[in-house]
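Supplementary notes (optional reading)

For those who missed the lab, this is the record we used. Protein: Protein kinase domain-containing protein. Length: 523 residues.
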Amino acid sequence: MDRFDYLLTPTRLLLTNRLKSLLCYQSNMEKLYLFFLLLLLLLLPTSHTSSSSSNPEVQALIAFKSANSPSSKSLESWKESMYVCTWRGVTCVGNHVSKLNLEGLGLSGSFEELTSLKKLSVLNLKRNQLSETIPDLSNFKELKVLSLAHNKFSGEFPVSILSLQKLLRLDLSYNNFSGPIPVKINCLTLLRRMKLERNHFSGSISHLNLPNLKSLNISSNRFIGEIPESLSSFPESTFHQNYLSSKGFIHSSPANFSTKRNLFLLVIVTTFAIIIIGGVYFSRAPESVMKDDLIFFERVERQFSLQELLSSPAVKLGNGGCVGSTYKTVLSNGDNIVAVKKLNKNLFTKEQHVFEQHVERLGSFQHDNIVSLQGYYYGEAKLLLLVYDYVDGDSLHWLLHGHRGPGRLLIDWPTRLRIAIGVALGLKFIHAQSQNVNFHGNLKSTNIVVDRAGNPSLVDYGLISILASTSMDTISKEYLAPEANAIQRFIDGRSGRYGDLTKWGYWRLGWLHLVEIEIAYVL
């Protein structure tokens, strides 16, 4: 796309590109004519600017911005002088807004102004401060994904959601909703994922029957009664911290003294078992383990509970790093393998919401040369976990230095070059992200994983920026480049991109001996 193409509406952009292509096939006179026609087209006022005042979708978004983010810079790009499809968080199909991803922008108030976006298929308002009553959503006939989690909404289950016949994912978790779940929710026959945990919903769930539901979490509510057969395939963590029973198993249910005593014994036995099993790689599970659950990012399909994670076998990878140790963990079904990093929580003393906001940002990183973060757990005591994709391979350090005996397999130079380029591309991607996490901070051969095909991926990226200041001072001397410590401290007191590039340079000279221009071109 040319430099000023974003100023054009899709129709004008199509015509402009068509005229450009015609210039390649015409005579000189015809080319001159087409050139002036193209110039005239570019000089004319853009149609989206002149008609934005009459575009109801643009006006709805501007009204939402005015009501919810009047002084914040989070929606600074929402200007009528700019093409709406270039605005932050806005995705278009044709001339209509189809997706709104406004997660974690500090928005407050209501989102009633957005209900006129009739072509919307995805609405993500997760992790804001929205607090007013849920507006009528019945205009969202095309909506497939609705995420209102981690806000301050209250009141009963929004009945207008029941009219969203195309809905696939619903997330109302971590709010203050109350009351029963309507029977008509079964009309949402396409629903695949529903998250209602950490609210005050109550009543029975015996009527729930959603045939296409693959993921469900209703934990930490006030539901009562029996778990229906239609939901029996979901793990126990789906229902914990409610007043539910299923086939004799009681979940936090108030009863007579005898039942309470049995429940007390059951909790002790279960907790002891989890401590023993989870102790294989998490030392001792704190009491807070059972008070919350893992938080996964929206894109992760194969989710599991903290209890499942702690009860699964694990093998420690490497000797552990400065900020924590990593474990290969095989989930109970045997076909899901993840890498779990147990962080040293003493090094991460910043407030929970600061940590979560930073990790949420890391979770949005998607690149072929970085290992993706699936989710995290922030416990009240000593347990702090990050769950990553598992890469079947070895660290670059082991490939270079781990086996020096007879039969040692050397890495050929084409593979070394591919690794070098991959690491450079991964760094480039990280540096291009938002300014608060725009450096790796811990680049070394043990934090580069090479898969069986010779493709590298970066791990342990972006964590140093959320360390406590005292921990950062100590650890930065251990693994950041000395020049980065000196120069960056002089500039702003923190280490950053310069350290990444200096370490990258030392590492490259130490084992690659590549031509300077090759790496400069990649970076």
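If you only remember one thing from this example: The chain has a mean pLDDT of 74.
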